[in-house]
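Exam revision sheet. Question 4 asks you to relate a sequence to its structure. Input first:
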Amino acid sequence: MIPKTSFSQETNVDSLVKQHKKIAVLPLKVYYIYKTLPEGLKVGDVRNKEYEDGFLLQKKFNDYLKLKKESVTVEIQSFDETNSLLAENEITLQDLKDLPADFICKALKVDGIIDAEIRLNTFINNEEIVGRELLSIAIGVGNKNKLDNSVLSKMKISDGNTGEMIGEFPLVLVGTMFKSTEKVIEKMLWLNFKNTPYYKK
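Answer key, structure tokens:
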């Protein structure tokens, strides 16, 4: 089992986070894992849906953080501004995987970035199924077999000044299926965010 959070031993997390006034949420990395593809659905269709849902969940998560602003210690850059600045600086989704965080933060004019990943195991022939209802929470990856019936989220926070990743927050939800992307936001990403130093406890 991997820890709930992991930081560089040389990083003074509190000191860095206190300097963060404004952060950006990057387009999410979304992965749909099928045991067998539903009839009529091709791998390319899944990849396209992952790409589109990455932006959809970015916006929904961004909006949700603004809705919960009384519990968030920093200003959240708007969805439109983040993606406009990415386009203006010709930064693609692939670039986001390769570029250092300080470069990305400078382009976005923010102090830090949240880079989140959602991995959804989908084993029935219903394209509307996007996640699983929360029954229990396991911090970290845990038992490999549990991933056959789970949603995995991983949230990383990086500092714009040093370019260093200052926190990594994995979370696994195990349970029954549901159809609403809102549930992924409310239960998965929000629970994940509440473990970050940006959450006002």
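Marking note for examiners. The first helix runs from residue 13 to 18.
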